Amino acid sequence: MSDTKVSTNMIKGTLPITNGGTNNSSLAVANGGVVYTDGSKLVNTGAGTSGQYLKSNGAGAPTWVSPGVTTLTTITAASNTKTPTASGNFSNMTNGALALTVGTWEIDGFVYFSNGGAVPPFIIMSADYFAANGADSGSSPAALSTISASLTVNSVPSAASFGRVAISSGSNVSEYNLVVPKIIVTVTSNVSIYLVPFAVMTTAANARINTYVNARRIY
Which is more confidently placed, 167 or 107? Predict the structure, then answer.
């Protein structure tokens, strides 16, 4: 069978897609435009502007959008100097709350344990991130898992090391910087977390504790 040449003036009306057409009697041809289907016919987006990208809107028409400007957000929380009320307590740290807004955050911090120029006080030093501040008691504050509706922990150093980071000196220590391993969390509604220290010491009145926390929004 020989090929049959069909003249364009032999085609009347709009040619359906199933027959190789566009099913669109007014399909525009735009330099830089992208052709897509709206479910019944072919449509042209038209050209975007330089630097834009084509964004899918699900079942809706795609649109050209400009990339947003990414701003690095960093927040910090530095507590007041704390003199523990007693040995073996989770200390309540004034100004130690880290207020997180919606997003994904990388969090790290450290705790500075020192003496007040007197007898070296520390035997055990530890710290961790909690959903509540310490209460100057031996009871552990609420865990981050209690605020799972607002915050999810995505990454921790290892299953073994997550939890209170503890240093047992075996003898009295007068000064120590305790680095708390980094965690990555996703926040779905504004929430505050706390870096809470715990210490066993010979004389609480000689102890001084400060917490420092940094958070960087990474998404």
Answer: 107
